[in-house]
Predict the structure.
Amino acid sequence: MSRQTGREYYKSMKEKLDYYRRKGYKKVEGFIYPYTIECVCDLSDVQKSHGIKGSMCEIGVHQGRFFILLHLLADSDEYSIACDLFERQEENIGKSGHGNKEIFLENIEKSGGDLSRVKIITRNSLNIAPDDLLTHGGIRMISVDGGHEAGTAYNDIKLAADTMVDGGIIWLDDFPHESWLGVMEGTYRFFFDAEKELWPIAILERKLILTNNERMAQVYMSKMFESLSLYYDIGHSIFVGKRVLVMWEKSPRRKLKKYLQQIRFWKSIQKYRLVDEFGKILNKHF
Ligand SMILES: C[S@@+](CC[C@H](N)C(=O)[O-])C[C@H]1O[C@@H](n2cnc3c(N)ncnc32)[C@H](O)[C@@H]1O
């Protein structure tokens, strides 16, 4: 690794990331889905283009599916911090997932990760202090997916809010999820205590995405809208008094229609009568 030039290093990490986001993630047991993967990558690019730097972090890594994505997105001077109970599963009172350090480390290696930039904290998140996460500076992206009880969710969101750099992003899992209502309760408690202000960005594939910078919330929303409007009908809702993007997956037909509307060739042939008639039929039936 050290013999690679900066450019070679960047190229090889990019190849690993491209493979992981297309296929590699499917080989790692866990809970992150395709559109979220694309959005994590897009929002990480937005952060980079705005000069937002910092560590990546996940509370509750299980076997590493989400964590590895965050790690592969980190620059060569950014660390990734993994927090999990791992062998202390007797403390996993809600039985959310089951972290396994051996498989987790194997998965990072198999995916081409750089273990010299990974910090592992094997502890109950209730006993993790902000300073434990700040050893390599503030955090720019954090996935909160550990204990799903209200008290733990509250604690973990607070930990995230206390350690993020300006413009950092939280990916809060299972909000909403009918089997894990503690996450919703903990989240609302956090907002009503309002020690640190957070702005919602979107709810996507059962994840609530939050940031600590109001202006960046708008920038992130615009990017998500641009990336996802092909696949989702996107609207907005109000959460704790603030706007949040919400989505409904389009049917395959509506995806096709949207796709056709976007391609230049289709637009350029719209003027021909036959095409116009075909367009009307599409509009009527789809
Ligand atoms: C739902 S799984 C995480 C899935 C993972 N984010 C992924 O991408 O696949 C929950 C994880 O949180 C861990 N966990 C549960 N309670 C915890 C706690 N209080 N502190 C730290 N980790 C915890 C479990 O060991 C498990 O690995």
Remarks:
- Residues 251-286 form one domain.
